[in-house]
Amino acid sequence: MPSPVVRSEWGLVTTKVQGDRLTNSSGIEVGSGNADIIDADRVDVQRGKASLEQLAREFSSGYRSVGSMVYEVLKDAILSGALAPGEKLRQETLAEAIGVSRLPVRSALIQLEAEGLVIFHERRGAMVSTLSEEQVREIYELRTVLEGFALREAIRTMTPDRLARLRALAIDADAQGEGHAFVEARNRFYDELYGGESRPMLTQIIADLRLKVGGYLLGRRMDSVHGHSHGALVDVVAGGDADAAVDVLARHLQAVCDGVVLLLEPRD
Amino acid sequence: MPSPVVRSEWGLVTTKVQGDRLTNSSGIEVGSGNADIIDADRVDVQRGKASLEQLAREFSSGYRSVGSMVYEVLKDAILSGALAPGEKLRQETLAEAIGVSRLPVRSALIQLEAEGLVIFHERRGAMVSTLSEEQVREIYELRTVLEGFALREAIRTMTPDRLARLRALAIDADAQGEGHAFVEARNRFYDELYGGESRPMLTQIIADLRLKVGGYLLGRRMDSVHGHSHGALVDVVAGGDADAAVDVLARHLQAVCDGVVLLLEPRD
DNA sequence: AGACTGGATTCTGGATCCAAAATACGACAG
DNA sequence: CTGTCGTATTTTGGATCCAGAATCCAGTCT
């Protein structure tokens, strides 16, 4: 089990800490080993502010506008599980933590809302999107349809050099562990496979659908994901049998979908 | 400099302040009063501003937040062609035209950017999105894939009462002329056909794809659209042959796609 | 005469301030 | 003791103000 220590360093837990027990709204205990650090009510905010400033500095290189930086930071926080699904997002707290004004935070939240990662309640603020089982199943249903089409097109127009590039990217993705590097490598692989340059909207829609469930995967890679290496997918694609490849893909997505559904309810 | 007259007049939308003569209009009075203030050296901006004021008047009541109202106004302006593709969107001009501050305009623009209707250039402002021929063809390719799937599912799970509702909605849509009423009726029809309530994301994605080309259709309904009545589609669906229905749909989309491509370049 | 550079103007993006609404807490009454 | 109403605090949404960047125009140099 991956240790949640890194997550606790974000300090973006917005629930009030009245006692010595520090949990976020999803009930996941945040850094039990760091519980003794918490002395006063504001300590978590202080810690979060310090970490986020450091992380904002880390993210700040290469970003021209503050709003886009905040957007990346918040997206990363949601996808990494630092901001749990259902968690209330107070603009003031986020702004203080990142070290900017509330305005770019609002801009970033609007962008994230359009992507479906957060939802706004009228005058009641924003929260990280939660997914019902029906929504998860629809997401994977749509992914099956879209990625099936993309895969058929990829096989239909496959060239030797592109297959070579795919193999290299697959090896790279399978070599990565968890976290950022894996996600990046996986995205590069699927971008190449699904014709990211020739069909930008398709790859964008697929990426958005994949993002929506990102918050539920937290840091953990499920067995079904592990069992399905990208190299194997390349092998099926290289075979040239579109139906077989789509079948492999559909089974894989179905397995991942079932795993995500199980993660929705912690009780099992 | 146009002095902001009654900007502090709150309760614009929801609650009506004990206004003397001003009803729950969100700064519409201000907008109409400032109609002649804009510099007259840009005629196209003049035209856009007048249209925006008209739209703002129409959309004035029934919205809780000013930002959402601005969003609806701008979206309608883009889809109706009042703001042409490629047109530069200056926040100050838009804000004055609608009669609000620049901030809700920025929020609305961010939302519209996420939907793909406008694009932001780094420090150079926003403009209405333009579509290349490749993008148009990809849009209709994806619509064929998604709507084909949706249509098959609809036929698979069709019930008599739903067929009856579809027929009523088709008659309603075919009876409408152009403009708002037609778009609304058409959306209701496809919402019912594609299972809007059971597959919200699918219908949302399809609607977004349809929106992207809305600005190029302007007010004109092409012959191919005219020739394909919604009632005929219902008849094919009622037949129960999924392959035939998908084929009809694909041909229709292909025809519309070709028509839109022709509209991209005025030369023919 | 044309091109390059520097300044001025304009526009975007960010911060701070203010008004309104919702929620939470407390007081009072049944 | 409990439920309801009123007030106060919190928080969101909007407007105005300010700084930085980009563009445009003019002046000068080649």
Features:
homodimer, 268 residues, mainly alpha, disordered N terminus, DNA-binding
Care to count the β-strands of chain A? 3
What structural category do the secondary elements of chain A indicate? mainly alpha
Report the total helices of chain A: 13
Distance between the termini of chain A: 17 Å
What's the overall geometry of chain A? elongated
Q: Specify the oligomeric state.
A: homodimer
How are the strands of the largest sheet of chain A arranged? 1-3-2
The fraction of residues assigned to DSSP E strands of chain A is under 5%
Helix content of chain A: 55-70%
Mean pLDDT of chain A: 75
Return residue spans of chain A where pLDDT drops below 50 for at least 5 consecutive residues.
1-53
Determine Rg of chain A (CA atoms, Å): 20 Å
For the largest interface, the chains and their residue counts are: A-B, 25 and 25 residues
Characterize the main sheet of chain A. 3 strands, antiparallel
Order of helices and strands of chain A: HHHEHHEEHHHHHHHH
Account of the protein in words:
The structure is a homodimer of 268-residue chains. Chain A has 268 residues and is mainly alpha-helical. Helix content of chain A is 63%, strand content 4%. Chain A contains 13 helices and three strands, in the order αααβααββαααααααα. In chain A, strands 1-3-2 form a three-stranded antiparallel sheet. In chain A, strand 2 (118-121) and strand 3 (125-128) form a beta hairpin. In chain A, helix 3 (66-79) packs across helix 5 (102-115) and helix 12 runs antiparallel to helix 13 (242-264). Chain A is elongated. Residues 1-53 of chain A have low confidence and may be disordered. The interface between A and B is medium-sized, with 25 and 25 residues. Chain B binds a DNA duplex (30 and 30 nucleotides) through residues 4, 7-8, 10-11, 14-15, 65-67, 90-92, 100-104, 106-107, 122-126.
